[in-house]
Amino acid sequence: MFYPNSLAAVCNLRGCIDLAIANTQDIDTPNSEFVSIYALVWKNILQGFFHEAHHANAFLQDGHKLWDDKDERAKEEEKADEYARTMLFKLAKTIDVEVEFSETVTNMVNGRITAEMEIVKDLLPNLEKDRDEDQKLARWYASQKHMINYGGVYYDEDEGSSNPAISLKTFKEFLHVCSGDAEDDSEWLGETIGQPLELKQEPAHEDAHGNQVPPSIDVAAVVGQDAAESYDDMPFEPDEAPVSTGFQGVSQFTATPIPAYTAPANTNPPAAPVAAQPASAAPIAPVATPVAPTSNPAVVVGAAAYPEIQLPAGVDAKTVVYGLYLKIFKHLFQDCQYNPTNDSVPFAGVGNIVNWVQLDQHESLFVKEMTCYSADGKGTWCQGTKVNGAISGIIIDKAKTLPAYDLVLSTPEGTQIKRKFIPQNPNKIKNGQLTPTATLAKAGNQLMWIVDPDSKEYSIRVYNGTVEKNINGNWVPAP
Question: Among the residues of 331-450, which ranges form H helices?
Fold first, then answer.
């Protein structure tokens, strides 16, 4: 799923697996029971990458038009679907695209298929021969079991016929059939197995334009044991499931593994698996020397601590502040590498929270102080650090897994307020179970709470790239 506000895409691996199983058992999808679940999950992931890449380019080019026009978004969905299919087939004709999961994903797929096979196996004695749904399920079990034991991506054997089984051994053969191209199409007949994709490697610690960027941070070297506040004990997290309306992202990719195969839409928000970045030997220190707490202790939070903010004509304060929220949201979930499928480190790049996030001239008027780390490498929090055009964050839980920001802001009238910007922990347990909001985060939803640390009030948040307010118990897009 692509989130326009944060310019990020996520893929829910569990959702891909569940969708593949549902699709292969779907009575309205002819011959889907003969398709390997492994192959279908792999196709979903590859095709989804191209689908979301098309969305990313479209929103960069015409984001304002797509955001405001539902019909334009529908057209973009169709274009992205076609682009994804075309690019996947093009890829398969030129390089090796055979199924190759990581050990973690392989274990996920194996576990889910094993459980489903056991369920269907127990149903087999009671299946009715004159019921189409039951017979499809029986064929599904036989075909999937054969491919698990002997390999292949498609297997159709008619036990009552003398005709040989229809069998496809490679993922490339499978895509050839999906494409509808002629069997003797020369573009599909080239040797690609073992031909890897050659990627241009960017210089270390430089972006695509050659600009220097900070390396990933060694969390252990930056975060002191006594500096972390226990996120698990914070009472602000609501127990109700988030409610959201309006456009938040572009819907998940669909699969078409064989002719006449039309996959149902996936309703699960996908998640983006990422690999942890290598740790840097030298942590980036956001401040030169430890800074003492606020130099104006007489100021009471909520009082008029600052001059009234004067914005240029045509610049709206709410637009500036919401833009700041989305900038922080992007850094937390994209730059800190959100990975809700990891049960121990949900932010693989959590150390990147200390990297500078630049503020524009208008945002700088609202952000006055921050809590950041000292430069001595001891992981000491420096509260009340004056902000001068950029902010740096902290890691707030004892397990050193959750990045956050702790800021002092000014309202347009000059009133001082404190706010913490905290991502939802997808692994938060309460009474032995994931909390409702953790369950949504585990499914791939990106949820950032904006919290008053004194009152623990959380009436505003960013959910999947949309700023929302809690109005009468319902979360709705902020006006």
Answer: 363-366, 436-442
- Asked if residue 132 belongs to a domain, the reply is yes
What pLDDT does 117 receive?
92
In sequence order, what are the residues at sequence separation of 6 or more whose Cβ sits closer than 8 angstroms to the Cβ of residue 453?
406, 418, 419, 420
Domain residues for 439?
214-250+267-479
Q: Are 457 and 225 in contact (CB under 8 A)?
A: no
Mark the ranges of the chain whose per-residue pLDDT is less than 50: 197-300
CA-based nearest residue to 51, from 76, 23, 83:
83
In a domain, 246, yes or no: yes
Predicted local distance difference test score (pLDDT) of residue 159: 61
Is residue 447 within 8 Å of 431, Cβ to Cβ?
no
Q: Are 188 and 172 in contact (CB under 8 A)?
A: yes
Contact 19, 255 (CB under 8 A): yes
Q: Is 73 left (phi over 0), alpha (psi -120 to 50) or beta?
A: alpha
Q: What is the pLDDT of residue 21?
A: 92
Q: Are 435 and 237 in contact (CB under 8 A)?
A: yes
403 shares its domain with 282: yes
Q: Alpha carbon 94 to chain centroid distance?
A: 29
Q: Please give the pLDDT value at position 405.
A: 95
Number of domains in the chain: 2
pLDDT score recorded for residue 111: 92
Is position 262 within any domain? Answer: no
- Helical axes 103-123 vs 13-25, angle rounded to 10°: 30
Q: Are residues 8 and 76 in the same domain?
A: yes
In the chain, the amino acid numbered 240 is E
Asked whether 10 and 442 are in contact (CB, 8 A), the reply is no
Contacts of residue 52, defined as CB under 8 A and 6 or more positions apart, other chains included, come to 1, 2, 9, 11, 80, 250, 253
Q: Which two tokens stand for residue 244?
A: 């959201």
Query: What was the pLDDT predicted at 399?
Result: 79
β-pair partners for 469? 460, 476
CA 463 to chain centre: 12
Alpha carbon 123 to chain centroid, angstroms: 36
Contact present, 166 and 259 (Cβ < 8 Å): no
Q: Supply the Cα-derived Rg of the chain in whole angstroms.
A: 26
